[in-house]
Amino acid sequence: MRILLVKTSSLGDVVHNLPVVSDIARHFPGAEIDWVVEESIVEIPRLHPAVRRVIPVAVRRWRKTPFSAATWREIGAFRRAIRADSYDAVLDSQGLLKSALIAAQARGQRIGHDRDSAREPFAARFHDRGITVPRNLHAVERNRLLAAQAFGYSADQALDYGIVAPPFSAGWLPAGDHAVLLTATSRADKEWPEDDWRGLGMALIATGLRCILPGGSPAERARAARLATSLGRAMAAPAMNLTELAGLLAGAKLVVGVDTGLVHLAAALGRPTLALYCGSDPALTGVLAGPQAINLGAPSAPPAAGAVVAKALQLLG
Is-cis flag, bond preceding 10, omega within 30? Predict the structure, then answer.
């Protein structure tokens, strides 16, 4: 059986789709599973041993130069890559017009959300088969249920993200146990106050941990450096790729982060994880990975520093 998954972005959404690979591989041993994903996050599907081939797409970058000859050459190369194999099924679990159009380029029966379930209802017109999935389920559960109905199995088995991160080592990483603090996110209203991060960091350092603070952009790394300097027994990580970040997270005793894809990656890797919600709702897209993955806060109701410290210490045992 040969299946193509279309879930292109964002990082958190891609992490939420990983259990679909585990479910398919469990029910169809030997299935060949390929995945179309944005070029910036190809490393995430590659962490799953059941994914045979990852096909990069660059919609975000192509949109910036839609009339460039280089863009059209890349689009042509992508179309050849996605049509290199024939599939028994092409599963679009994103439910957007862009993902439906990408799925339409592949050779195979196209399956996705029906008009009532898709995030963009018009996308359903490009599928050969539409499936109804309740909108009030968590994103992970929606993905799993869509695949289960598409391929005729039950999604009742234990949740399994299935990913394995390579061990991470670096000269800058201090010896001893560490916690990772993910302070950066895509929107200002999702940020947690710096003074609260300092209070949490001091509490963790008092337990003997070192705090590692990654950051993606220069501005995020500057903020991480500012916090690390004020804490003392902490370090702002240099620029890292996603595979390196996965290894760093996998080796952490605890991960605390705001609403960002990396906090979902930490939970998927089985690390004790606290996700802090300040400007978004965790009900449908919070971390979901068992009792060691905890969501705190709500829109316009960020979690208090004391509550976060208490939960962090509880997770540390």
Answer: yes
